Amino acid sequence: PQEKGSTFLQLGSSTQQQLQVIFEVLEEYDWTAFAVVTTLFPGYEDFVDYVEVLTDSSFIGWEHRGVLTLNLTDDPEGTRLRRQLREVSAQIRLLYCSREEAEAIFRAAREAGLAGPGYIWFVVGTNLGGSDQLPE
């Protein structure tokens, strides 16, 4: 018999679910110091609030090294972005942004030497999939 086309259903996990898993990974590897990097992408305030909830309600001694909120407009060369990313003291960074913003942020991070060995980035969001092409 001839097969009919299949249906592919992609279910995205919520930002809260993604953060819960990330914090389990951080705990497993004893990576307790981290910073939050966001853009003004819708939902960023909820993201920051939920990180606070997870760290405040935990018995783990998290070392939350602050929140950097990036505004990518009016910085076409990425000069300000590279400087701001260099000022983040944590090697582990939780990033919340759009897919397009992630590409610009990682380009700047590479140029600033912040994307190689020794730096761990967790990108969180419900809008990052759905493309055949992955950013570098």
UniProtKB/TrEMBL annotation:
InterPro entries documented for this protein: ANF_lig-bd_rcpt, Peripla_BP_I
Domain annotation Receptor ligand binding region: ranges: 6-124
Pfam families xref list: ANF_receptor
Subcellular localization(s) per the UniProt record: Membrane
Cellular component, GO, one term: membrane
Keyword Membrane found: yes
Key words, A-Z: Membrane, Receptor, Transmembrane, Transmembrane helix
Protein's UniProt name: Glutamate receptor ionotropic, NMDA 2D
Species: Eudyptes filholi (Southern rockhopper penguin)
